[in-house]
User: Fold this.
Amino acid sequence: MNIAILSGKGGTGKTTISTNLAVMAGGNYIDCDVEEPNGFIFLNPSDLKKEEVKVDYPVINDNNCTLCGDCAKVCQFNALVRTKKNIILFDKLCHSCHACKIVCKYEAISFKKREIGIIEEGKYNNIICKRGILNIGEPMAVPVIKDVLKDLPNGINFIDCAPGTSCNVVNSLSYADGAILVTEPSAFGLHDLNMAVNLVRNFHIPFGVIINKYNPKDNRIQKYCQKENIKILGTINYSRKVAETYSSGKMIIEIEEYKKAFKEIVKNLKEVFPWN
Amino acid sequence: MKIAVSSIGKNLDDMVDIRFGRCNYFIIYDTDKGFIKAIANRGQVSGGGAGIAAAQQIIDEDVDAVITGNMGPNSFNLFKTSDIKVYSCGSMKVERAIELLKEQKLEEISQAGPAHAGMGARRGFRGGR
Assistant:
């Protein structure tokens, strides 16, 4: 069972919720926020295994190329340009779709691979921790995310997604059986929660909301969830203690009050997403 | 000499669009024959690589020079490879920019500006998060 943790708004606590929940529920932690994966700061897994993520890019054989320009014309991502002298590749725009090779009548195109990121996998106690890391300067995160998710361990996997509702989140969600939307009681939190809800509804999977940085005086999220008929899985109280614990790299379930809150969330989770 | 000018509209009395990759039109002009045509910029509607798409169009038109405001690194390097000169001008009518080029009063760009500068408030590749 794969449960995606997303938020819409950044900084609502996806990683805090994912890491603490994974430990509390005995599930695996999968960090798919490959542009800035930071769950390992808290879990610090041991026995790390590393694997490269590679993508195809076209190589033009100048002996066969007639400069007809069909490859540049068919490329939907503007990765190939025909000049008067040669075909120029912009490798970071290439989506490895191979359309250029399909249209080439002169067998002038072959493919090579280049590394755009890595995948790391290790263990924290009994749980498996896996993350993708996109190399600095690479614009495309999706191939790394897909590589992380194509081969997941058995059991419950908590997938820590990127913020927003971009391709990165859409691709992570396409592997999910359920979703947790983390939000905070603020105007931005509500606005972006609404975006995330609209996205998740396209996937027809069960989902619920966790209100982080909860403040009992502000009930805008509850009102919204009631109106939209969305289950609130739990609340995490706003407190200085949490910020101190978090900023020293510790799990917030080390605080008794918060351990209780996460226990409650795990209980509610089992109602929304049934697992053994 | 054949020139391409990035433009807001289709006519010589329209303003120069100071963005290259995301401009609306390119006015193709020949210093001997005058106005040739206006072509819609394919880069304007492209998700990424706008400057590259625009540059491909201009290269295919077989021009000798381009007049625009700013140009990013990708398109700039493509023009350099294709021996097409790039001239920079401020906000003015297309016909005025062409006059200035004829009088050799426009500055040739020797270095590319920053990438994604023409994307306005949505600055950043692919719209980000």
Notes: The two ends of chain B are 45 Å apart (CA to CA). Residues 2 and 62 of chain B are 8 Å apart (CA to CA).
